[in-house]
Design goal:
transmembrane; hydrogen ion transport; single chain; two-stranded antiparallel ribbon; cell membrane
Length: 246
């Protein structure tokens, strides 16, 4: 568990303290910038392999998430922030299985919380801009519900819409990355332990190493899915805020 709370490396006792996880986050952001700069600096009508890969990633967010849920007009409006969110989560998740990094930048609450706040602000902004003066009223007091039920409905809508959404977004991403890291540590530590004991116990290391490798592949899938789910839920919240019934 101490790996989630590493020692300060630079700027100790200042608001700009940098530890190992912060360095990993910087590396992930640098990787995003570098990959997209290389992939888009000399774009061709007939793309090469690397440009095609970059375009596939961008199209995944644009077509499968933004435009599919929000339509072309609103999808393009929110596409920059949704694309940034997807690749930021993805790359910081993937640092958990990269040798010498070995911990996700999203496995400490800072990044998941900031992204959840951005998601929260986006959906409220979308709703207020589309339905000024009526967004909060219709969110808490849905039209068509008998007025006597508002005593029950309004508190439920307040909690579910304006309190639980950022909390669940934060915890879903954070817990998946923490559990994944702990599982990998468990399997690979067990492998080292059985090898050091030697004798017949060394055979157990084969099993723990195999499980460790399998869960490493599974973590890649989880990293992609969590990035997709986080971005998808953010888009769904924006879609609900833009819905005409608000």
């Amino acid at each position: 568990m101490n790996e989630f709370f590493p020692d300060v490396l630079f700027f100790a006792n200042t608001p700009f303290e940098i530890n190992r996880i912060m360095l990993i986050r910087f590396i992930a952001v640098l990787a995003i910038v570098l990959i997209f700069w290389i992939g888009t600096r000399k774009m061709k009508i007939v793309p090469g392999r690397f440009q095609s890969l970059v375009e596939m990633g961008l199209d995944l967010v644009r077509v499968s998430i933004a435009e599919d849920l929000l339509g072309k007009k609103d999808g393009r409006r929110f596409l920059p922030i949704l694309t940034t969110m997807f690749f930021m989560v993805l790359f910081m998740n993937l640092t958990g299985i990269i040798p010498f990094l070995n911990i996700a930048g999203t496995s400490v609450i800072g990044v998941p919380l900031v992204l959840a706040v951005v998601s929260y602000v986006m959906f409220i902004y979308a709703g207020v801009r589309k339905h000024p003066g009526a967004f909060f009223k219709n969110a808490l007091f849905p039209p068509g519900v008998p007025k006597v039920l508002y005593i029950i409905v309004a508190p439920i809508e307040l909690v579910s819409t304006f309190i639980l959404r950022p909390i669940t977004l934060t915890l879903r991403l954070l817990m998946n990355m923490i559990v994944g890291h702990l599982l990998l540590v468990l399997f690979f530590t067990a492998t080292s332990f059985f090898l050091l004991i030697g004798n017949g116990f060394a055979l157990f290391s084969i099993g723990t190493l195999a499980f460790g490798f399998a869960f490493t592949l599974f973590e890649i899938l989880v990293a992609v899915l969590q990035a997709y789910v986080f971005t998808l839920l953010t888009t769904v919240y924006i879609q609900l805020a833009l819905a005409d019934e608000h």
